[in-house]
Design goal:
The protein is α/β, with parallel strands linked by helices and 842 residues long. The chain is built from 27 helices and 28 strands. The structure holds pyridoxal-5'-phosphate (PLP). Belongs to the glycogen phosphorylase family.
């Protein structure tokens, strides 16, 4: 490995060179042992930015030279360097798995990565998931490289003015101050990749960030050699118009894959975090076609086996889509270069082939070019099967090929210092980097006093933080000295502290608690059992309804009778989230089911002993049980219905009034709320490991990455013979399918079952190209369907390519519950994902 100092922007004094390596490894965002070093160098800047790289760039030479003579500092530095080396070289969960040979490298593509405030290239949950994913890949030793964009401005920063209006600011990300470096070629020059844009060549700069064992490679368009109109393409995350968005996605997908290629990286698995990155599959196919001398479509068939698409969308309207004309404008030249018909490319993003009016759907492209698809919670898996069902006409819903892996959070990134301490004592140092066995038992044995004390210390720290934030905000709005001083008295360290922070947007219903403001006021200001609430969240600059909901809260907070029991912390970001999830007693989440595909913020409080009060949506729909928290909603979908919102708000108040608040204040002789603490213990023990990215990534490896890698190598072996075979099979199926026919079905009752015989006429298809199955729907709403493979037993006399198929089965159901179906089959193919044809006898 090349040492990072090679690229270090400034000379560090002898003895301190390794500080550069430490500062550039974002491992410091979750492993806090090196914090003392950065504090020693510049405490103020460390507290303001949490960015060691910036600290190094800003420190005077004299100060650095003094530190280079300071033996205590040097000792600490050497200790940290040793600790980092040891952890990077230790055996990992992945290195100890058998049969991982086929999985050389996973490329993880995402529009955003939320690793730390010091690298602000994310907006919310999707990015944080991506960041947590890379950190976990480092922990578990999964070979992964991240691919993303380096935005000049990232997502907007928020201030709220005295009128409660949100102000959006776009500070400039100076790449020299971010913990990233240019990617250099072996000759020392800066690596660039080119992407053809209409009438011009876009030249992209390549950057890298280090995340422990894992690299995150980033592209930006802001190089001097690009035309001024193009230099802003990677300016703003989720900013600009439709065309900018398409340009960004081309840069991410096509530029991203080319960057990997230029670095000699050949991932066996390509993981698309949401449809934004789907163009990567096209460049991957093009590269494979060149390398193995295949045509583009065959190469796509080969490589798709190695692609995994994770969808995060719960509604059709949220899919990323572009007009055909715009796709033509940008993809004509790619199509020529790849020697594929542009119409074939366009069809990859449509439901109805050839329909020019239909928008090009990035999720459909991803689906048609992947070997597997997953949603991000059990419920979201079900919802996604409904969303994608139109691409699989006549297939039963349960067989629509979308699985699920429930999201998690990178626990070491979200735990407090107190939690780190408590968990280390209970479960050991390496608890989050191995298989999580034994954690539940260890936490279950913690006693009430320990847990309550743990909760109290974290709540106290949050309250100091809230006071600092509030004073800062009031000062920023030029409020009076007295108002600023009053902040030191905000909140009561012994009062029940609730948190609510998320994007302010309609479906999250951030103002559900405001449906009956007087009732909320009574709850908050109860003399004996006071409640306090910390809020935070941004509304997209174009989401006026979201901004209005912020304003409603600010007005409520300003009421004299609320007595400062609610604080809105501006500029929700990872740092604010981190403060909140460590300190709150309970976290409220009120999405409109099923719009919260998973949700992760509620998972961040688990390790810190917070409890969830949440709608039965996303992850909570599978995590909830009465011992671990509280549920809202009836587990059904109600659409956008103000009457139902009112009912749920009513239920939320009632839950707070009759259950949550009383339980928190119900103390035993030792002053401990023992029922509350029991919940804390159960939630920590059961849910923390289950909703971690450790569990999540191991599921991805076992259920997706390894099978994908193997499927890809089977297709690509012998210069793609498997893929060519598949291609021919696909063509045969397409040519003959409409003439395949099911003749008579005869069912004979047996003692405890039946024998079914079916006549099948295959037109020109060899029988091995298809499978014949006997099928029955499940009984009742939740019954599992039955499906039996039928054996080809006889050629039908006098028929051309007609056969009798038979199966004998045990059943008590009547024979007319059963139907026969014919579907394509091939040992290398995923059906119905790759061949959605199906024929039913009725
Ligand atoms: C965790 C997190 C999110 C995602 O929260 P959800 O409630 O899952 O939407 C968004 N923004 C920040 C800053 C976060 O830390």
């Amino acid at each position: 490995m090349v040492h990072m100092q090679h690229y270090f922007a400034r000379e560090l004094p002898a003895g301190l060179e390794s500080l550069g390596d430490l500062a550039l490894d974002l491992r410091w965002s979750w492993s806090h042992a090196s914090d003392t070093l950065w504090k020693r160098i510049d405490q103020e800047l460390w507290e303001a930015t949490g960015n060691p790289w910036l600290i190094l760039e800003n420190t005077s030479r004299d100060h650095l030279e003094a530190l280079a003579r300071d033996n205590d500092f040097l000792d600490k530095l050497r200790g940290q360097v040793r600790a980092r080396d040891e952890s990077l070289n230790a055996p990992t969960w992945f290195s100890e798995q058998d049969d991982t040979r086929e999985l050389d490298l996973v490329a993880y593509f995402s529009m955003e990565f939320g690793l730390s405030e010091a690298l602000p290239i994310y907006s919310g949950g999707l990015g944080i998931l991506a960041g947590d994913m890379l950190k976990t890949a480092s922990d578990l030793g999964v070979p992964m490289v991240g691919v993303g964009l380096l935005y000049q401005q990232g997502y907007f920063r928020q201030m709220i003015n005295v009128k409660g209006q949100q102000q959006a600011y776009f500070p400039y990300n100076n790449p020299a101050m971010l913990p990233v470096l240019p990617v250099r070629k072996s000759d020392g020059s800066w690596l660039h990749v080119n992407v053809e844009f209409p009438g011009r060549m876009l030249r992209l700069r390549c950057w890298e960030a280090r995340v422990g064992r894992v690299r995150l490679l980033l592209l930006d368009a802001n190089g001097m050699s690009n035309h001024p109109r193009d230099r802003g393409i990677t300016g703003e995350l989720y900013g600009g118009d439709e065309e900018t968005r398409l340009q960004q996605e081309i840069v991410l997908g096509i530029g991203g894959w080319r960057m990997l290629d230029a670095l000699g990286l050949t991932p066996t698995v390509s993981h698309l975090n949401e449809g934004h990155a789907a163009f990567a599959v096209l460049q991957r196919a093009a590269q494979c076609a060149r390398q193995h001398d295949l045509d583009f479509i065959t190469a796509l068939q080969a490589t798709r086996a190695g692609n995994l698409f994770t969808t995060h969308t719960p509604v059709v309207a949220a899919f990323d889509q572009f007009p055909s004309a715009l796709i033509r404008k940008y993809f004509n030249s790619f199509a020529k270069q790849w020697m594929v018909d542009i119409e074939a490319l366009l069809d990859l993003g449509r439901t109805h082939l050839g329909d020019e009016r239909e928008l090009f759907n990035m999720a459909f492209l991803a689906l048609r070019a992947s070997g597997a698809i997953n949603g991000v919670s059990r419920l979201h898996g079900i919802v996604s099967r409904e969303l994608f069902a139109p691409l699989f006409p006549r297939w039963p819903l349960a067989e629509i090929p979308v699985g699920h892996v429930t999201n998690g959070v990178h626990t070491p990134s979200w735990d407090s210092a107190e939690a780190d301490d408590l968990w280390t004592k209970a479960c050991g140092e390496n608890r989050w980097i191995s298989s999580l066995d034994g954690i539940e038992v260890a936490i279950t044995t913690l006693d009430d006093t320990t847990l309550w004390d743990f909760r109290t210390r974290q709540r106290q720290r949050l309250i100091s933080t809230v006071r600092v934030h509030a004073a800062h905000q009031r000062a920023g709005r030029a409020e009076s000295e007295r108002r600023i001083e009053e902040c030191s008295l905000l909140f009561d360290p012994n009062a029940l502290t609730l948190g609510f922070a998320r994007r302010f947007t309609g479906y999250k219903r951030p103002n559900l608690l405001l449906v009956q403001p007087e009732r909320l006021a009574r709850l908050l200001c109860n003399q004996r059992h006071p409640v306090q609430l910390v809020l935070s969240g941004k509304a997209h600059p174009r989401d006026l309804d979201g901004q209005d909901m912020i304003r409603q809260w600010i007005e409520f907070i300003a009421r004299a009778d609320i007595q400062g029991r609610v604080v809105f912390i501006e500029d929700y970001d990872m740092a604010v989230a981190s403060d909140l999830v460590q300190g709150v007693d309970a976290w409220i989440n009120t999405p409109r089911r099923p719009w919260e595909a998973s949700g992760t913020s509620g998972m961040k409080i688990l390790v810190n002993g917070g409890l969830n009060i949440s709608e039965l949506d996303g992850w909570w729909a599978e995590a909830y049980s009465p011992e671990v928290g509280w549920a809202l909603g009836d587990g059904n979908e109600h659409g956008i219905d103000p009457a139902w919102d009112f009912e749920e708000a009513d239920a939320l108040y009632q839950l707070l009034e009759t259950s949550i608040v009383p339980e928190f204040y119900e103390r035993n002789d030792d002053g401990i709320p023992s029922r509350w603490v029991s919940r804390v213990r159960a939630s920590m023990a059961r849910l923390t490991p289950a909703y971690s990215t450790n569990r999540m990534l191991r599921e991805y490896v076992e259920n997706y990455y390894l099978p994908r890698a193997e499927a890809f190598s089977r297709r690509i072996a012998n210069n793609g013979r498997g893929a060519c075979d598949l291609r021919k099979w696909s063509a045969r199926v397409a040519a003959h399918w409409s003439a395949v026919r099911i003749g008579d079905l005869e069912c004979q009752k047996q003692d405890n079952g039946m024998i079914a015989n079916a006549q099948i006429f295959l037109d020109g298809l060899p029988p091995d190209d298809i499978a014949v199955e006997l099928y029955a729907d499940g009984i009742g709403a939740n019954g599992a369907s039955e499906c039996y493979w039928m054996e080809r037993v006889q050629t039908l006399a006098g028929a051309v390519n007609g056969f009798r198929y038979r199966v004998s089965l045990t059943t008590t159901r009547p024979s007319n519950d059963y139907t026969v179906r014919v579907r394509p089959a091939h040992p290398l193919a995923e059906v119905p994902l790759e061949e959605p044809h199906i024929l039913w006898s009725r």
